[in-house]
Design a protein that fits this description.
Elements: E1 2-5, E2 8-11, E3 18-21, H1 22-41, E4 51-54, E5 60-63, H2 66-72, H3 78-94, H4 98-117, H5 122-143, H6 151-162, H7 172-185, E6 197-203, E7 211-213, E8 215-218, E9 230-239, H8 259-283, E10 287-290, H9 296-304, E11 308-310, H10 315-325, E12 329-330, E13 342-352, E14 355-363, E15 369-375, H11 378-400, E16 404-406, H12 410-423, H13 430-441, H14 443-451, H15 456-470, E17 474-477, E18 482-485, E19 493-495, H16 496-514, E20 518-521
Parallel strand pairs: 6-15, 9-10, 9-12, 10-11
Antiparallel strand pairs: 1-2, 3-20, 4-5, 7-15, 8-14, 9-13, 13-14, 16-19, 17-18
Helix pairs in contact: 1-3, 1-4, 2-3, 3-4, 3-16, 4-13, 4-16, 5-12, 5-13, 5-16, 6-7, 6-11, 7-11, 8-9, 12-13, 14-15
Length: 523
């Protein structure tokens, strides 16, 4: 790139630099954003299709989760990556609605492209979109149901999020029961402690075997084969230390001149190791979770004392076990006190194929629960895990972040109607952008209709007509296809927070891309 200065060219960028400006830059960025959006569009809704993602190493992922699809796609275009960030933000904030946010971003860009071709300035588009987004938030507030968030309504939220996702041989209904039980277990009356709910998966049984464990399910296995595999009414110790021979803090050499000295040294070492087991036995510990290493001889001594022990327990696992059982994490065996230990009704070790899992159930504090998901194959359990996490997240969002709204595209129809009504009072070209935003929202019910096998245009016309006459209308899927109906009567509800976040993140991404008129790339 050269700049003329008093008749002489001044080079600012290197010769290797590539620059795209003006309408070409805008068109390229918008095309990239729309392409990413279209990649996940067919996955939207209960009748959405799955995508198969194959990595360079041959690993296969089958899913219709928007965040997972976009995360694992090999996307290089910077504008396209911004759409991926929309899905990532949506996932982190509310845990669901990633496809909705991505599809809306792409449609906002498509509508902006039409406005740019009609010579509407990018600033007017950006201002109009932000005004429309504000009106959308107003409309969402007006759609929030007044009903109490009881278990029945929360089950509908969880079921709506999982319908159409890969859940193996079990429907969304029974899984929703498990999800709501888990969330209620960690709801303190004011806030859901979402981090206290874990999903653990294991291949080898049907999805219908998925169950809720009031406690922790751990991958850790006993350190000795002769240790008990079932301990009832267990006293739990969580130890942040190594149970092995202590090493000196300074380098030193010991000269042993005869066999008696060697035997004495070995005896002292043996006594030290045996002392660990005796200390735990005397303190009343039945099960020990140790974050450090356990010497093989200590493991043997512990087994002889009837103590079940685990080594190299991860920090997160140790914290979960301590939280569930009421134990304190202690760093020394000296002066152990009964107040340092936790309690569990049952600790059991079960074998699944070649591996073992440890269940810590009925903890004294019962602050941690685990959804133990089963499936016939790795692909099934992976998708089931994603579906359950989404359901847990949306149920949390419903309780913590502002209630629920009608699903099935009904809220989007209401938002678009509100924006069109208010657009008449907006002056200047910004009004065109506000109306374009409303038109962009129509992509969501249109896509739901198309994925359900309905004619999207006819469905949209009927949705608007029914909304005008009855105040609520959505795409209710049936075993055969889909129909226009009341999503509340059909039990289809979504957290309001999912809609709010999707509107906000999609608007931010679209306006940021529209404002770019110069792309400079160099090596």
């Amino acid at each position: 790139m050269a700049q003329q200065m008093r008749g002489q060219p001044m080079f600012i960028l290197s010769e290797d630099s590539q620059r795209t400006r003006g309408q070409d830059a805008q068109s390229s960025n918008i095309a990239a954003g729309k392409a990413v959006s279209n990649a996940v569009r067919t996955t939207l809704g209960p009748r959405g299709m799955d995508k198969m993602l194959v990595s360079d190493s041959g690993d296969v992922t089958i899913t219709n989760d928007g965040a997972t699809i976009l995360e694992r796609m090999d996307i290089e275009h910077p504008a396209a990556q911004m759409i991926v960030e929309v899905a990532t933000t949506q996932e982190e904030e509310v845990g669901d609605g990633t496809t909705t946010a991505s599809v809306l971003s792409g449609e906002l860009l498509a509508r902006a492209e039409d406005l740019l071709e009609d010579d509407v300035h990018p600033t007017a588009i950006v201002e109009g979109y932000h005004e429309a987004a504000r009106l959308a938030q107003e409309a969402i507030d007006g759609q929030v149901l007044d009903e109490e968030l009881d278990d029945d309504l929360l089950r509908k939220v969880a079921r709506s999020s999982m319908t159409g996702k890969g859940t193996g041989d079990v429907g969304a209904g029974p899984l929703a029961e498990t999800v709501v039980k888990a969330i209620r277990q960690v709801h303190d009356g004011e806030k859901v402690q979402r981090d206290n709910v874990t999903v653990r998966t294991r291949v080898g049984s049907s999805s219908s075997a998925t169950d809720l464990v009031e406690g922790v399910v751990s991958d850790d296995e006993p350190v000795h084969e002769n240790m008990p595999r079932r301990v009832e009414d267990a006293t739990i110790g969580v130890l942040n230390l190594d149970l092995e021979v202590r090493e000196g803090e300074i380098d030193a050499e010991y000269n042993i001149t005869d066999i008696d000295q060697l035997e004495a040294a070995l005896t002292a070492e043996e006594d030290e190791l045996r002392g660990y087991a005796e200390s735990l036995k005397e303190s009343g510990v039945d099960v020990a979770f140790v974050t450090g290493d356990i010497d093989d001889r200590v493991a043997s001594f512990l087994a002889s004392e009837g103590i079940l022990a685990f080594e190299s327990v991860s920090d997160d696992e140790a914290t979960s076990i301590a939280r569930a059982t009421g134990a304190k994490r202690v760093g020394t065996l000296s002066d152990l006190d009964t107040e340092d230990f936790g309690h569990a009704d049952l600790v059991r070790v079960e074998k699944y194929g070649d591996d073992e899992l440890t269940f810590v159930e009925g903890g004294a504090e019962a602050e941690t629960v685990t959804v133990f998901a089963r499936g016939g194959t790795e692909h099934v359990v992976d998708e089931l895990e994603r579906a359950l996490n989404d359901a847990l997240d949306v149920t949390t969002a419903a309780l913590d972040k502002g209630g629920v709204v009608p699903g099935a595209g009904a809220t989007e129809i209401a938002i678009a109607d509100h924006i069109r009504t208010e657009a008449a009072s907006i002056t200047g070209r910004k009004q065109l952008a506000v109306e374009a935003f409303a038109d962009a929202l129509d992509v969501l019910p249109r896509t739901l209709a198309a994925n359900a096998g309905m004619d999207p245009i006819d469905a949209l016309v009927e949705l608007r007509s029914t909304f005008e006459s009855e105040g609520r209308s959505g795409i209710v899927t049936t075993p055969e296809a889909g129909e226009i109906g009341d999503p509340i009567e059909a039990g289809i509800v979504d957290p309001a927070a999912v809609k709010r976040e999707a509107i906000e993140s999609a608007t931010e991404a679209a306006t940021m891309i529209v404002r770019i008129d110069d792309v400079i790339a160099s090596n």
